[in-house]
Amino acid sequence: MSLVKAVTAAVAMGASMAMATPAVAAPPHPFVFVHDGFQPASQAKTAGAVTYDKSLVPTSASVFVAEARLGGKGMEKYHEGGEGHGHHWMHKGTFVFISVRGLAADHHFGVHVHTKPCGTKPDSSGPHYQNTKDPKQPSTNPKYANPHNEVWLDLTTKSNGKGWAKSWVKWNFRSGEARSVVIHKHATDTTSGKAGQAGARVACVNVPFK
Ligand SMILES: [Cu+2]
Fold this sequence. Notes:
This protein is mainly β. It has a single domain, classed as Immunoglobulin-like (Sandwich), CATH 2.60.40. Helices cover about 10% and strands about 30% of the residues. It contains 1 helix and 9 strands, in the order αβββββββββ. It has one helix at about 1-20, and strands spanning about 30-40, 50, 60-70, 95-100, 110-115, 155, 165-170, 180-185, 200-205. About 35% of the residues are buried. The chain binds copper (II) ion. Copper (II) ion (CU) binds near residues 112, 114, 182, 184 and 198. Copper (II) ion (CU) binds near residues 128 and 184.
């Protein structure tokens, strides 16, 4: 419970910090926020987010992604004065949150953090980010392709096209190696030989994870 409260506080604090500081604030800054609309894939060079399938992710849709690094520099403020056992949330970890609006209704999307920025082609965003890299690529081994070694943010939209998901992992991204969030057509598979697969890439969001 204290972890959830700490994360909520961290995200709330980050939101106020984002308003008070320029987007290019120098590290260590434990928060990253992206809020974008989806543009046609042909605009990928300048777009924050692109769609490859307008029937599932129309250009009127929008996305919000937040990353909060816990246990790193900049979090000292939370090491005192908290309730309960503070050591729970002093461990190193990363919290990622996504919310979407305007997507196809009542649809389950597979969503993951990928290694490369979005491009004009769906495959531009590269493979999934893995904390421990599978020596065999593409990785479909559940030992590596799982929501503890990767960041999975599968979500199901409501009838109004809104949805959200969150992920908590016990590690931090390697700098510069996690660059996007990809939205896939189907739910993420967990079976051996297909683990991590979620069908076609229907949209992509550039996120400069730290
Ligand atoms: Cu993916």
